[in-house]
Amino acid sequence: MGYRVAVVGSTGMVGSEMLNILSERQFPVDDVVALASRRSIGVECQFGDRALKAQDLENFDFSGWDMAFFSIGADASRTYVPRAANAGCIVIDNSSLFRYDPAVPLVVPEVNADAITGYSRKNIIANPNCSTAQMVVALKPLHDRARIRRVVVSTYQSVSGAGKAGMDELWDRTRAKFTANDDAESSVFTKEIAFNVVPHIGPFMEDGSTQEEWKMIAETKKIIDPSIRVTATCVRVPVFVGHSEAVNIEFEEFLDEDEARSILRESPGVLVIDKREDGGYVTPADCVGDYATFVSRIRQDPTVENGLDLWCVSDNLRKGAALNAVQIAELLGRRILKKG
User: Fold this and answer.
1) How many CB atoms sit inside 10 A of residue 67's CB?
2) How far is CA 67 from the centre of its chain?
3) How far is it, in rounded angstroms, from Cα 127 to Cα 74?
4) Handedness of CA 284, 137, 252, 220 (dihedral sign)
5) 119: which DSSP letter?
């Protein structure tokens, strides 16, 4: 006996990836429906070898459905997520809307699986920000061993984090560099993205940080430990898929780099590739389509007491969004619903 599952935003990049991963991981499904806005009704979505035609979200009745994966942004989630949750369908929401609600668990299964029991307060589980998800998978096992005091992270985030429009703009602007009379304009990003890096993701806040940077701080505290101090600089780079992060960690206790490497090799969801030779590390191009969070360049930081540096890379459409959502559903099935 399997689950009745709805994928909301199924025609978008993350929604379509959710359908792919549900099929790849053979999630126990008895019935699956693809939902989208009215302008996408009838668009075909692939679920394994089945083609699903997107149905109208506006008129859909969630009664009798076990789970719904939402990837439609915060504004639309504000309308439709409570509708699904109130109908008895457990919602796994990929937007930022519910992440900071104390009554909604923010879950990364490898990190804080026990938090999932809090879903019952609102029938909603929040999926974290893509840049946070991969980082906390690497941080949690090290925190368990030596207690993290402070994290300084600089991100190198791919344009797919801005959706299909971001990927299209990188393609168009790159082509414009080599094509005479190409008048492609920048609209998604605030500066030229081709052959450039842009230290600006999300609106600016009063303290000078961006919303993306604030998300990493707030979510790391909620998922791992509120006592951890985090500072972030988030940068958009001309890469199509795959987020990278340079992470500096200060611990309360000394942690040797070799022990850290061994701990991470045994940690769920982490794959260590760390050879001190040409190519002995992972880049975004290496991780596309993979489930793992890759860690490389592990080394002591001699400038602070009990410091380590590492390099963290993951497919942001997978672990940063769709995969984590499906892993939440798997956890929900094992611990709560127990149907599959």
Assistant:
1) 24
2) 19
3) 12
4) positive
5) G
Q: Phi then psi for 60, rounded to 5 degrees? A: -80, 135
- Residue 43's alpha-carbon distances to 26, 34, 52, 62, 66, in angstroms, are 23, 9, 8, 20, 24
pTM of the shown model: 0.95
CA separation for the pair 132, 218 (Å, rounded): 9
Cβ-contact 5, 27 below 8 angstroms: yes
Buried b (16+ CB within 10 A) or exposed e, 315-331: bbbbbbbbbbbbbbbbb
Q: Is 33 helix (H, G, I), strand (E, B) or coil?
A: strand
Q: Token pair 């985030």 is at which residue? A: 157
Tokens 């207690």 identify what position? 147
- On whether the CB atoms of residues 108 and 223 are closer than 8 A, the answer is yes
pLDDT for 180 equals 67
Q: Is the pLDDT of residue 339 over 80?
A: no
> Tokens representing 188?
């998604």
Q: What is the pLDDT of residues 171-226, one digit of tens each?
A: 999 998 888 666 667 789 999 999 999 999 999 999 999 999 999 999 999 999 99
Contact criterion met (CB below 8 Å) for 196 and 275? no
Just list the catalytic residues.
130, 243
CA distance 256 to 4: 47
Please say whether the beta carbons of 90 and 332 come within 8 A. yes
Band (pLDDT 50/70/90 cuts) for residue 1 is confident
